[in-house]
């Protein structure tokens, strides 16, 4: 980043609080003050948006519930391959909601404006492209695609249709993420050199051991359609309801969780992505028939660009974390660190003093007395007292306790439809986040370094 750009952002810091509603108010969290960030979302509900969802599993129901909190949105139709999910739709949202096993019936309806895609990963590209070709706005859950080549096809579909398309990694719409980006660009941590991120869990549901309904059968589940173009196998409710455990239908831990970490990393730094990816992992605890690891680590090399210096990123997910799990992303620079939570973060500054110091664990202690005295005399002459103090401070920022970044993400999506507001996490952003995650899997299974062109989004 140029010096002019950095100075510009430093000047903008004074207006950041007004933009985000983060005035001088501070709330005590424990014993330390936290600056509260208040959303000032502007919503125009003049045009009613009729919404449908394909895939009424955990994310489908969660997305619909959140989307309906935005004024002017009506849920009119749902598609799912399990009849029990469709029954649940009517129990929750009423008998008037149209339900079907065939998602194409939703795309053919002229009265549906937007489609949420919350299916298993291997269906994302097909439904996204068909929906955009039918004139629908699309909110597609992360990862945007299962294969890199599919991502380019989704990008092409968005461009040719001029569609409103947003990937559902909601943190890029978080007020905490926006404020953290301001702090990073203002140079609060000096020169970035390392991003350290983890997303660990230690429970069965967190390891995708989802409950399977007792009525699961070939009569209640359209298993053949679920398989799509993957290998034909006999009906297996475990594959259907715990699809994330299989390479054929999901994208493993990188596709599910790395994408959140990468999306936030790219949003804060403005990066297009890494140029080298290497990963390693293991299947430690969850040996339940899955063919993906439950522990994985990756190292990403990010090249220097006009927007950021060269830096490394280390990402980790551990589903066998006996410490109890937890997640963070740490942006480490030469003068401090930004430590991200989910909708909160802290900035710790630790700028070194100009004077190097002496004594302590130092060769000065090995000098003869005369040399020690001479050294101190020249040191005092060279380094006045004000050069011996560094900058050590800490600031905390947090969204309100009831804040929902997914709500703001849907607001941005619907405002893109209503007013043409720019979608940050469009198809191109989506592939630049999904690509490194997908290649983490490729590196793991091939046991080799993968080279990636972040600008063209192609394997080198």
If you had to describe this structure to a student in words, what would you say it looks like?
The structure is a single chain. With 460 residues, this protein is of the alpha/beta class. The protein has a domain of 231 residues: Dihydrodipicolinate Reductase, domain 2, CATH 3.30.360.10. It is built from 13 helices and 18 strands. The strands form 2 sheets. Strands 1-2-16-15-14-13-9-12-11-10-17-18 form a 12-stranded mixed beta sheet. Strands 5-4-3-6-7-8 form a 6-stranded parallel beta sheet, sandwiched between helices. It comes from Chitinophaga agrisoli.
Topology diagram in text:
Elements: H1 3-20, E1 26-29, E2 32-36, E3 49-54, H2 58-67, E4 73-79, H3 83-93, E5 98-100, H4 104-107, E6 114-117, H5 124-133, E7 137-140, H6 148-161, E8 165-167, H7 175-185, E9 192-200, H8 223-227, H9 237-241, H10 252-269, E10 276-282, E11 295-302, E12 311-318, E13 326-333, E14 336-340, E15 344-351, H11 369-382, E16 391-398, H12 405-419, H13 427-446, E17 450-453, E18 458-459
Parallel strand pairs: 2-16, 3-4, 3-6, 4-5, 6-7, 7-8, 9-12
Antiparallel strand pairs: 1-2, 9-13, 10-11, 10-17, 11-12, 13-14, 14-15, 15-16, 17-18
Summed up, what is this model?
The protein has helices spanning about 5-20, 60-65, 85-95, 105, 125-135, 150-160, 175-185, 225, 235-240, 250-270, 370-380, 405-420, 425-445, and strands spanning about 25-30, 30-35, 50-55, 75-80, 100, 115, 135-140, 165, 190-200, 275-280, 295-300, 310-320, 325-335, 335-340, 345-350, 390-400, 450-455, 460. With about 450 residues, it is of the alpha/beta class. The protein is elongated.
